[in-house]
Amino acid sequence: MSLRKTLTNLLHTFNDKTAVIAASLSLKRRVSSVRVHVLRATTHRLAAPPSESQIAAVLSAGRSSYLLPRTCIEAIMDRLHRTQSATVALKCLFTLHNIVSEGPLTLKDNLSHYPSRGGHNALNLATFRDDTDVQSLELSSWVRWYANVLEHVLTVSRVLGYYLTNNGAERKFSGVSSVELLCEIRGLVDFVEQVSHAPESLHLQRIDLVYGVVRLVCDDYGRVQREISLRVEESERRVGDLGVDELRELVRCLKRLEECRERLVVLFVNRKKNDSFWDLIGRVKNEGVVVMEEMEGKWLTVVVKGRNDLTESTRFTNPFLEPGEILYSGPTGWRVATCQLTVPSLG
């Protein structure tokens, strides 16, 4: 280890201890206790993620009065937005992720509504960069990716109307419209796409902190697989009743999902491989393509009016075609052309 790195680590250790001492001097003992728990869970020490006891101490704030959960979320967010250290930022995100996965509702709800004015990029880490050294620079890309993943976790919860948990109740779709169903599938696929865009520096998983991050994301990915499966199975039951636009959206989402498969296998090293899941996605996608092509084929029916007012075919689902016209897809969109056909006379 270089002298500069050694001095930097000593300085970070000193700053961490100073911050804990300063927070503990507050006259508001319960608020002070929450801030101390947050600081101890988000130190500059890279070797490992926050321990189970440190995470449990942070989560305990959600089981107190209404003030402490808000204080806890604000303390983590302040720490996250003020730091220039990739290690501290990853630990803050790791702690927030544990709140979403395992925390009490009081903490989850405070996080979901932060900031109060809303906004898509609530974590605001799109430009985060720690250029202390090469490793810190590589870890910065993991910070940006992890922040986006966590934002998508919160977005999925809003789309579904409930938090992703291991013991979540199975969704009933009897009163859910096809439009709502496709909206939920699209939100879930957005999450999978973001997960698949992990940094190329996968070798950093040898660091316990990064490995812990990937493990938590892998757990969420497993839950999302389950949610997608339920909705795709329901879509398969409805495939004959869906319109062309709905089928096109379903097929597009499933194709996007399949394009993520190889990157996910590399990221999770075959964990959550789940071949039956991908078999379902491929089967329903193909069924959707077949039904969609059949319906679009009716749109392309040529309406022919022959001699003696003999009419072959009608316009099926498209009442806007005149006899002899054909609807086709051109470079600028759908076009109508006149088709000149000769019907031979009998005898």
TrEMBL record:
Residue ranges of every copy of the ENTH domain listed in the record: 26-164
Domain of life: Eukaryota
One Gene Ontology CC term in the entry: clathrin-coated pit
SUPFAM superfamilies attached to this UniProt entry: ENTH/VHS domain
GO MF annotations in UniProt: 1-phosphatidylinositol binding; clathrin heavy chain binding; phosphatidylinositol-4,5-bisphosphate binding; SNARE binding
Stretch forming the signal peptide: none
GO terms, biological process: clathrin coat assembly; clathrin-dependent endocytosis; vesicle budding from membrane
Protein name (database record): ENTH domain-containing protein
Organism per entry: Vigna unguiculata (Cowpea)
